[in-house]
Amino acid sequence: RAGDPAAVRDWVRAARRIVVLSGAGMSAESGVPTFRDAQTGLWAKFRPEELATEEAFRARPQFVWDWYLLRREMVAKVEPNAGHRAIAAFQQRHPGRLAVVTQNVDGLHQRAGSPGVLALHGGIMEDQWLDPPRACCTASPPQAGRPPRCAACGNLRRPAVVWFGEMLPARELAAAEEAAAACDLMLVVGTSGVVYPAAGLARATRGRVVIVNPHESDLDDAADAVLRGTAAALLPGLLEE
Ligand code: APR
């Protein structure tokens, strides 16, 4: 169902409430590696169960911490791309009309100026306590280390991202489900659509579904239109006046 960008542009103009559901492909043109692209994806080089699970972190805290440190340093060096900027500019021109729901942890939508980003998988630049913090943990700043830890009880800091098998933040997920149910157009940008519940939002929405992705994705069958192109190349044309 190859889509026509001009028709999608008209759908954007006519839509009262738009949701952008973004995945790693949204940030590919900023230089952030995706997860499942054949050669370049992170999961082509590393095994997610060895790095992106609580069990892996408890087994090898320094190894996992260092991997996120590496990704954090890389994300700190990149910039939002024309796709992120086109979304933020649209939100600026039409307050409250477009909501961003992202699976990305890179914070690039936020850095581009998008307000109220619903980050379903957390943020890589933040960290949180591994175990529920006690008075000692919050009494003084964590002791520096890889990972940092509570000097009194040894509680570890961990990246504030959602690992495989973990629950998504309830507030963000509820808000995303609400936005998906209420929108009349959902732009699904740069996601393979294999991870739920995020991908489920594209199947639950009442609105028209448009996919922006240079390759096939698991959500193509749910789409009203598929635009075979990249985020930075297509979004400005779709969203600019
Ligand atoms: N523009 C748009 N889409 C792109 C671009 C681009 N420039 N480059 C690649 N893509 C597409 C790929 O074709 C692929 O379909 O982006 C998608 C990236 O898919 P994944 O790497 O699987 O990333 P994502 O869908 O966000 O993964 C979901 O899985 O690993 C976990 O928690 C992690 O949030 C992540 C989740």
From TrEMBL:
Q: SUPFAM superfamilies in the record, alphabetically?
A: DHS-like NAD/FAD-binding domain
- The kind of enzyme this is, by top-level EC class, is transferase
Q: Where is the Deacetylase sirtuin-type domain?
A: 1-241
> EC number(s) in its UniProt entry?
2.3.1.286
Describe the reaction catalysed, as an equation. Answer: N(6)-succinyl-L-lysyl-[protein] + NAD(+) + H2O = 2''-O-succinyl-ADP-D-ribose + nicotinamide + L-lysyl-[protein]; N(6)-acetyl-L-lysyl-[protein] + NAD(+) + H2O = 2''-O-acetyl-ADP-D-ribose + nicotinamide + L-lysyl-[protein]
Q: Which residues bind substrate per the record?
A: Y68, R71
For this UniProt record, give its keywords in alphabetical order, as a comma-separated list.
Answer: Cytoplasm, NAD, Transferase
The entry's active site is H121 (proton acceptor)
Instruction: Name where it mostly resides.
Output: cytoplasm
What are the protein's GO molecular function terms? histone deacetylase activity, NAD-dependent; NAD+ binding; protein-malonyllysine demalonylase activity; protein-succinyllysine desuccinylase activity
Q: Name one Pfam family in it.
A: SIR2
Q: Which domain of life is it from?
A: Bacteria
- Gene Ontology cellular component? cytoplasm
Its function? NAD-dependent lysine deacetylase and desuccinylase that specifically removes acetyl and succinyl groups on target proteins. Modulates the activities of several proteins which are inactive in their acylated form.
Output the NCBIfam families linked to this UniProt entry: PRK00481.1-3
Domain characteristics, as noted in the entry: 2 residues (Tyr-68 and Arg-71) present in a large hydrophobic pocket are probably involved in substrate specificity. They are important for desuccinylation activity, but dispensable for deacetylation activity.
What protein name applies here? NAD-dependent protein deacylase
What gene is this protein a product of?
cobB
